[in-house]
Design goal:
By secondary structure, the chain is of the alpha/beta class. It is built from 9 helices and 14 strands.
Length: about 325
């Protein structure tokens, strides 16, 4: 059995895992992301996850390590500047992880954007398996995406292709933390959904945190403010997805992340709104489906990309492409 390592760093959690060559998690560790704390405290949380993984007996079999991080990232430089983690700006994450004392000698971590990692996982083992052209999205604390074009993962020069959360959908909208007005993320992230519902008059029940999941529960119970918050998020997502489909001609859209766990509370208005925006013949009827790999897709995808970059031999692992070492994931025939 071949063993891959993976980290998945987002605005809410820092997760790590050892993954086998079938994409199965052998062990998993997680810490909360101290997103508003110092760069050193953030790195300490990452180190703590690695320390826990290193206690597992399969750690010594590690062949590669992938790091999926909220973006923007610079995969060539090994640095990260996550919009929702302000203390990390051009932070040398790859180098800091490589310095961990338990990392096998000579093993160089591979950095990838978190949504690109999710895309790699869904194309390898999930809902996008067998599709030639797909957009995969993570809708969570932030909104990100990745593209499969011509059967290959398309990442761009710095690894940031697919940043759909920072497409402007409201020219006069509020400024996003990225600096642009009216970004998708300001409408459809979990943070934005909860904030909009609260501003409209919704409040969480006593003892319940005011999260997007709590808003979804209220929407299912018929609360009009909660339903409006998800309708607003769905409209922003539909506009951005339709624009992307018009640009690159997609076969499928896959949506994962914490907000996607709302199920039909998100997907029903999203599919309805798609009919308003995806109106060209080649975009009309574009399937939009939930991710199959749920909340561990970032870990599986980080492992997949790292294994391909490292050239790890496995009958089931992703196959390396000629595009800057990014994997063209092996997959079966299109469903």
């Amino acid at each position: 059995m071949t063993v891959y390592g993976a980290l998945d760093i987002g605005g809410t959690k820092i997760a790590g895992a050892l993954v086998d060559d079938a994409g199965t998690l052998l062990v998993r560790a997680q810490r909360p992301t101290p997103a508003q704390r110092s760069a050193g405290e953030l790195m300490a949380a990452v180190t703590s996850v690695l320390d826990e993984l290193a206690l597992h007996p399969m750690w010594d079999e590690l062949t590669c390590l992938g790091i999926a991080s909220a973006g923007p990232v610079d995969t060539a430089a090994g640095t990260v500047s996550p919009v929702n983690i302000p203390a990390w700006r051009r932070f040398p994450l790859t180098g800091r992880v490589a310095a961990h004392p338990r990392l096998p000698l000579g093993l160089r971590p591979v950095l990838v954007g978190d949504a690109v990692a999710m895309t790699a996982a869904e194309h390898w083992l999930g809902a996008a398996r067998g599709f030639e052209n797909a957009l995969c999205m993570v809708v969570s604390t932030g909104v990100g995406g990745g593209l499969v074009l011509g059967g290959r993962l398309h990442t761009g020069r710095t690894g940031n292709a697919g940043h759909i959360g920072h497409i402007t959908v409201d020219l006069d909208g509020s400024l996003c933390p990225c600096g642009a007005p009216g970004c998708v993320e300001g409408f459809a992230s979990g943070t934005a959904i909860a904030a909009h519902a609260q501003a409209a008059g919704w409040s969480a029940p006593a003892g319940v945190a005011p999260t997007a999941a709590a808003v979804a529960d209220a929407a299912r119970a018929g609360n009009p403010h909660a339903r409006a918050a998800y309708e607003r998020a769905a409209q922003a997502l539909a506009a951005a997805i339709a624009a992307t489909a018009a640009l690159v001609e997609l076969d499928l859209v896959v949506i994962g992340g914490g907000v996607a766990q709302a199920g039909d509370t998100l997907f029903a208005p999203l599919r309805r709104r798609m009919a308003d925006y995806a109106v060209l013949d080649f975009t009309r009827g574009l399937p939009v489906v939930p991710a199959l790999l749920a909340l561990d897709a970032g870990l599986i995808g980080a492992a997949a990309v790292a294994s391909s970059r490292a050239g790890v031999a496995s009958s089931q692992a992703p196959v390396a492409s000629s595009q800057a070492g990014v994997p063209a994931l092996s997959s079966g025939p299109r469903p």
